[in-house]
Amino acid sequence: MAGSDASGSDARAGWFAVLAMWTRAFIWSAVIKVISMTLPLLQDQFDTTTWILGWVTSFIGTATGLFDQPVSTNKLISSSTTITSRLMGRWFRPGYVIMTCGAMIGGSVIMASFANSPAHLACVFILLLGTGFGISSVLIKEAIARCFATNYATATGIARTGDSIGLFVCAPIIQVFIDTYGWRGAMLLVGAISMHLVVCGALMMRAGAPSASRYQKLSANDGISEHPSQLPSRCTSFYKNLLEIFDIRLLSDFRYWSVAIIACCSKFAFHMWLIYFVSQAKSNGFSLQEAATFVTVGGVGGLIAKLVQGFFLDRGVMSSFHLTAIAVAICSASYCATPWLTSYWPMMTSSLLIVTSSGALCCLQDVLSKQVLGVDLLVGAFGWTAFAGAILQFSLGYLPGEGPYKPSEKQLAIKFYSPYIIGYIPPYHS
């Protein structure tokens, strides 16, 4: 399904990139679910409140965005220059970077199993877990976009099924882990599973996954300047090159923001749903096993949605704009209805619609980015979008879990972040 002009090596690299993206998405679901399902246990273990643990968990998404794209200072790591995905892709081959990220992700979850306080979890999530997820995400998505000149939506849909299968498989398995080995043993086992991303990076490295060139060819008349007084012009040239490397121009591009706003809002809402859904379901009167069943069924819907959207877009059945509008409307309505649902089947239906719509949206974000901006700007677009999402998640990630789960508060919590999505349908047609 790679481009028709691609060689056998490029096609093989493309499918290895799809495998790496699938594995990363599966690991992401496993990590988020083991944290969300152990949230009540961690609250008792550390003698703390739900909103503090939820905020600590949101550090994963915050660090993911901060290490996707450059920022000189931030509230978490002051006076330090962050590692960027674009520079990592230029300095090293993507396979090496993804292998390192896999080791960081697996090691961080294993280290979290030995935590004795929320501060320990926060340190591990910021320095290792979020960083590994953030850098690997951008580099893998860029590799897929470069390898698949055609059928990109289908390739993205297949790669994104990892988190849907993760929701389907991980929820009951992690419940068994918790019942058998406790929360520490469950995190230890999930950390071991996360090490599989290292193997995917090795496969990409062997296949030679494409990336932006690190070097530029010099023209014949380039050489050492005979006029030392040209230092100011060289500084200006360095400044312009720095802006180009980090794709700063995207921040003033309306096309970028038309895609980034809906991506940030939908991702934030779904991550908050993943983190707080188990606690919310328990407050609605459901058991932990029933909550796991809701998530499992939702994972099936998300899996189907990711495959179907690729068929619709690549075969021209529906445009990406219309499909995005439908998914956003269904997802927002389901978020708003969830706090009032106390019966089994309505709650099951709400979970199914949320995960199904979110599954389609996560693929449509990548497709829209490539259609609107082109493949050469994808690294910067993905990075800056993740950075903006990180600021949103760090600033507001504690709100859905603030305070005890009383009916009025939980209704306000869910309604707070869900309607933001529906007002940001970009005003263009693809």
Automatic annotation (TrEMBL):
This is Monocarboxylate transporter. The chain crosses the membrane at residues 13-35, 95-113, 119-140, 152-174, 186-205, 256-279, 291-308, 320-341, 347-365, 377-399. Keywords: Membrane, Transmembrane, Transmembrane helix. GO terms for molecular function: monocarboxylic acid transmembrane transporter activity. InterPro entries: MFS, MFS_trans_sf, Proton-linked_MCT.
